[in-house]
Write a structure and sequence with these properties.
Elements lengths: L3 H19 L8 E2 L4 H9 L5 E6 L4 H16 L5 E6 L7 H6 L7 E6 L2 E5 L4 H28 L3 H11 L4 E3 L4 H6 L4 E7 L4 H17 L4 E7 L4 H6 L7 E5 L12 E2 L6 H15 L11 H8 L7 E7 L2 H20 L7 E7 L5 H6 L8 E6 L4 E5 L5 H13 L5 E2 L45
Parallel strand pairs: 1-3, 2-3, 6-8, 7-8, 11-12
Antiparallel strand pairs: 2-4, 4-5, 7-9, 9-10, 11-13, 13-14, 14-15
Length: 456
């Protein structure tokens, strides 16, 4: 009969080997390890330092062979450059981080510095050391150049970045404001769940910003959630990878994650706008074309601050001519036609023609009857006039013609001046009725001295 030690020896050998595999870098104080994706983000992505990260699998032969060399290099650069290691195997705790960086083989090394991620495609220790030294030198040089540029510009570069973030039209969501900005928002809402260390997310963010600026006035809102911080919120939507984009329909009946749809569109700004606007057409709340009631409104709407905004000014007949129903019909025609240029730098306003805004009408050549339309670029100081009949098809043709340069434009002779008026109350007009003139007794025609009456 075999002894107990003989029977247990294979198990003991396996256990010892497993412990060795699992402890590839656990006992190495020079190599960083990370407890979670949040810990990785804090110590690598948000760090001001340089970090070389090795993605490995405990069972990988090449990884085991590299381990002593990697540890030695980590000791050499300790206090100067960080070296870290991530167990990226199928059951590893940081598998998601590895997935977002497209890790498909082991070992894979990536160098993180100043929001840049660079591949390190060598296992030669001398080459690895050379790459780290070059990264260190380049980082110091780049920061020195940036400091010099900042001094020469009086700190404008920092101010510019702050201004850019302040003016962002992308909402930053968390568990405390999600209800307000998503479920209670009548707009179509698209939410991108991202991670700061995610390469695909970094590519999406600038496209998301561009799209948001074009959609903000077209019935759609774009937002982001840092899923590494808002883990509970991301879990509600079963976020498994980054970026994950959820699309919420328009209206105020949204109540929970079950209302969200998976976004199926592209990730370039034009594709994002196209996909989101398709949902606006399907479920979005129709955008009301504002009434032009003051000079401030004209300047606020038509001034592009560097972007060439096209203001489409619609002059509608007097309310006594059309009534409320007729006026709203004209507005609906313009709203439908405006879809031809949605997502572009077009703004629409209407005013009552033939009444108060005569100077504006003369400048834009809107003197041939109402309804009439002119497109005005305050930035370029030019205008164009729609001279065809007032139909959705013709207005669409006019608007798209502006975008392609097929519509002739004319220089504006003077700055348009808008007379401040009270906004329309949405009701039919009430005709002005003159009260009949009544004669007072004192107004009777008196006879002249000869007694002859005088006719009025």
């Amino acid at each position: 009969m075999k002894s107990l030690n003989t029977l247990l020896s294979p198990f003991l050998i396996f256990t010892a080997a497993t412990r060795t595999v699992l402890a590839l870098y656990d006992s190495d104080q020079s190599v960083q390890s990370y407890e979670s994706s949040k810990d990785f983000r804090h110590r690598v992505i948000e760090s001001d330092g340089i970090t070389l990260v090795q993605f490995y699998a405990p069972w990988c032969g090449h990884c085991k062979k590299l381990q002593p060399t990697y540890s030695r290099i980590a000791t050499m650069f300790k206090g100067l450059v960080n070296l870290g290691a991530i167990d990226a195997s199928a059951d590893g705790p940081l598998k998601r981080v590895a997935s977002d960086y497209g890790i498909s083989g082991f070992p894979t090394m990536k160098l993180f510095r100043d929001e840049k991620v660079e591949d390190v495609n060598t296992r030669d220790p001398n080459e690895i050391i050379k790459i780290i030294m070059e990264a260190f030198s380049n980082t110091v040089q780049e920061r020195n150049n940036a400091a010099n540029d900042n001094e020469s510009s009086g700190g404008s570069s920092s101010s510019s970045r702050s201004s850019k973030n302040k003016n962002s039209t992308v909402l930053s969501l968390n568990s405390s404001n999600f209800q307000q900005h998503v479920y209670d928002n009548p707009n179509v809402v698209a939410v991108a769940f991202i991670a700061p260390w995610c390469g695909h997310c970094k590519s999406l963010v600038p496209e998301w910003e561009i799209a948001a600026s074009k959609l903000i006035k077209n019935g759609a809102t774009l937002a982001t959630v840092d899923a590494t911080v808002e883990e509970a919120l991301a879990a509600q939507f079963q976020v498994q990878g980054f970026p994950t984009i959820k699309l919420f329909p328009g209206g105020t009946k949204k109540s929970g994650p079950s209302d969200a749809m998976d976004y199926q569109g592209g990730r370039e700004s034009a594709e994002i706008v196209q996909s989101i606007m398709a949902e606006v057409d399907r479920t979005g709340v129709a955008k009301e074309i504002p009434e032009l009631i003051s000079q401030d409104l004209l300047e606020e709407t038509c001034s592009g601050e560097g972007q060439n905004v096209i203001c489409v000014l619609v002059s509608l007949p007097h309310i006594l001519e059309t009534g409320a129903e007729g006026r709203n019909t004209y507005k609906d025609i313009v709203t439908a036609a405006s879809k031809a240029v949605r997502g572009m730098a077009f703004e629409f306003m209407w005013f009552e023609g033939g009444n108060y805004q005569t100077q504006l009408e003369e400048l834009m050549e809107l003197t041939f009857g109402f309804p009439a339309i002119a497109a005005y670029s305050m930035d370029k100081g030019v205008y164009a006039v729609h001279r065809a009949s007032f139909t959705e098809q013709n207005i669409r043709k006019f608007l798209t013609g502006i975008t392609t340069g097929k519509v002739p434009t004319y220089k504006v002779r003077d700055m348009p001046k808008v007379v401040t008026v009270d906004p329309w109350d949405g009701k039919d007009g009430v005709p002005f009725e003159e009260e009949p003139f009544e004669w007072d007794d004192d107004d009777d025609v008196e006879s002249d001295d000869n007694g002859d009456g005088a006719e009025l």
